[in-house]
Structure to design on (337 residues):
């Protein structure tokens, strides 16, 4: 997890605006900015990286924002960016749609398509929260998300309110986040965004069977990831929670590489693998880690882990903790002795 602070304080007045544009572009997505007085530009931002997900709070004077095709060809993170306005007001145009939104509203745009927009102060500065998430991480079809860009979403009630509060709280509480929790927080962020978008798609009353099935799979995906710690999680409980038959559940996932049960096991093992590789979990027993992710039988967990990764959980932990400052690595197969 990385925390970055960006400020124009201490920078020569004639260099502040250019510095702000460059550094925020590095932390999030590059854009071209214009402002009325670049020599009196005072701004600050703070960003938190949860793996490939970036969340930032920004406070700055009024600006015009452009991301033309030329800039996209030079730099494209292939991501969706979510902008939540806290003060001031903003406008955005993309893919033939245009919206104006104020405090408590958010808008999504695709970094791979041109945009132009603006942010205007109603006080001294305009402030907001920006979330950037790779497109590949969002469990919604690209065609569906394309229908939702440059559309204002309210965060006044329901899941929208929960998501807005969640985004607003992450950066101010960054120092309280433990390294081993970053992956879980990233997953929750993705789930909340996907749910907000899926609800709007529901409002569009998707007509095709394929669209309805995609939305149902999304809800099931969210349901499962939030309940990995529940030992009773199974195809039966999933089907019951979504008022469908177990047979239809398996049909929904028939085109996937894994069965539903195998998928649940894979997700649990991946969470256990991450915990085992974290030095902050050094004192936590294998049984405690397994139990945290829904494995009630340590022997069963060990067999499943070895089958998936080729080594026992204990040996994987020793290998991972032995690594000095390197990236997390997949284990090498265990050799017979």
């Amino acid at each position: 997890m990385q925390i970055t602070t960006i400020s124009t304080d201490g920078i020569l007045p004639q260099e502040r605006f250019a510095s702000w544009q460059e550094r925020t572009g590095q932390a999030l997505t590059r854009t071209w900015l214009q402002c009325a007085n670049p020599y009196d530009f005072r701004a600050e931002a703070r960003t938190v990286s949860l793996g490939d997900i970036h969340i930032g709070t920004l406070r700055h004077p009024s600006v015009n924002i452009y991301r033309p095709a030329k800039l996209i060809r030079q730099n494209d993170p292939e991501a969706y960016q979510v902008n939540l306005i806290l003060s001031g007001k903003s406008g955005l145009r993309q893919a033939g749609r245009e919206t104006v939104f104020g405090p408590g509203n958010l808008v999504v745009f695709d970094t791979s398509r041109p945009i132009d927009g603006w942010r205007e102060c109603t006080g001294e500065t305009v402030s907001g929260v920006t979330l950037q998430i790779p497109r590949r991480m969002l469990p919604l079809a690209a065609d569906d998300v394309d229908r939702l860009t440059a559309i204002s979403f309210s965060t006044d009630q329901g899941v929208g309110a929960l998501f807005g509060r969640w985004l607003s709280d992450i950066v101010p509480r960054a120092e309280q986040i433990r390294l081993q929790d970053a992956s879980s927080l990233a997953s929750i962020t993705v789930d909340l965004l996907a749910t907000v978008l899926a609800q709007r798609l529901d409002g569009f009353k998707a007509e095709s069977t394929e669209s309805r099935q995609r939305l149902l799979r999304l809800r099931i995906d969210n349901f499962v990831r939030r309940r990995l710690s529940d030992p009773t999680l199974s195809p039966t409980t999933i089907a019951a929670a979504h008022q469908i038959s177990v047979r239809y559940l398996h049909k929904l996932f028939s085109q996937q590489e894994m069965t539903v049960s195998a998928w649940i096991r894979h997700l649990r093992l991946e969470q256990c693998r991450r915990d085992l590789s974290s030095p902050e979990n050094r004192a936590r027993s294998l049984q405690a880690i397994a139990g945290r992710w829904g494995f009630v039988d340590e022997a069963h967990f060990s067999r499943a882990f070895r089958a998936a990764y080729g080594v026992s959980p204990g040996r994987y932990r020793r290998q991972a903790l032995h690594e000095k400052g390197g990236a997390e690595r997949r284990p090498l197969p265990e050799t017979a002795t």
The domain at 227-322 is CATH 1.10.10.60 (Arc Repressor Mutant, subunit A). The chain has a mean pLDDT of 89.
